[in-house]
Amino acid sequence: MNRSWSIVICAISIFLSVGNVSAQTHTLSLDEAIALALTNNPTLKAERTRINQSRAQETSAGLHPNPFLQADAQFLPIFNPSKFSSDNVNQDQQYDLGVGYLFERGGKRQKRLQAARDQTEITRFEVSDAERNLAFSVAQQFVAGLLAKANLDFAIQNLESFRKTVEISETRHQAGDISQGDLLRIKVQLLQFETDVTGARVALQQAMLALRQLVGFDAVAADYQIVGDLTYQPITESLDQVQATALQKRPDLAATRQSIVAARNQTALARANGKQDPTTTFDYSHTGGISSASFFFTIPLPVFNRNQGEIARSRFAETQAEYNTKAAEQAVLTDVQAAYEQAKANGTIVELYVSGYLKQAQESREITGFAFRQGAASLIDLLDAERTYRNTELAYRQALANYLFAAQQLRQAQGLIR
Length: 418
Description:
Helices cover about 70% and strands about 10% of the residues. It is α+β, with helices and mostly antiparallel strands. The protein has a single domain, classed as Outer membrane efflux proteins (OEP), CATH 1.20.1600.10. Helix 5 packs antiparallel against helix 8, helix 5 runs antiparallel to helix 10 and helix 8 packs antiparallel against helix 9.
């Protein structure tokens, strides 16, 4: 009995898990889209391999010099083979076998390794910046999808509403309230609403395909749907707050700051490379029937080349890195302020629509439509009210999308991914 219940519970769990997976692959929120893109986007995966490549260079930088082996055989009677004998080999010929090693001075290995680690750290920040840009692209495309979805819903709603107007107009025409010409003009106007529906469907499909490419074709089903609405949430942070966040979180700025540290360590490495490295060798020799050992020590004399040029270049590179970082900080502050002002301006436009223009356009359409059905308004008034309402609603949705675009741009400028 217990085993039977266990099987039932497992089956229910599997069913629920499959249902969750299905739901996740067929519906997609903004946060889920960004998470999938950061996991599955092939371009980002390729970018992340740079970190592993840099780590491999750390391994190369930390390697010790290889010892070397040298051997020689001298005075061999190659052109007089008859003289080859054991006595000749032992007495007349000379054999040498030596082992040597180069000793690095000045901490070259440690400084090479640190320079490689600096580059890995810079690469990590650059990959983080690629993630930031990808998240922004996903958010932009997601908002474009929401706009296309809202426009499609609105176009379908308008089409159904105008079809009712056409039906009422046909009834009025049969009753003799409107002319044949007015009825035809109303039916021709229906084409505009049908075209809006078709165009909105195409725009939605294009947005969904572009978003699927960003998140990964294998990450979502072909018929997936996005969930969310075009909603207006005003920005509550001050400009100083968003700029402070950007200076702290922007990965591209962090990469330039790390480049200063890397440049200083490169200067230390250049100084270390100016130190001359000695080579020691131990040789075993067999000559004239006698075995002997020899020790050799060699080191270049730093008379002319002390790596002066590379040391000077590295110092100038430090200065360059400091100026680049200063320029990057100023660029970040400018980027944030521009995005902040754009978001604020777009928010003001949205608030204008919400403050009364939307309601006025809707009420005008409803009043004119009612008056037309009662015979108190002309066809021109009806079509003008329909056109005004349609344009106002579409402009409002575009204003909402523009605000959300600007809000996402502000998040990217701050260095925020989610």
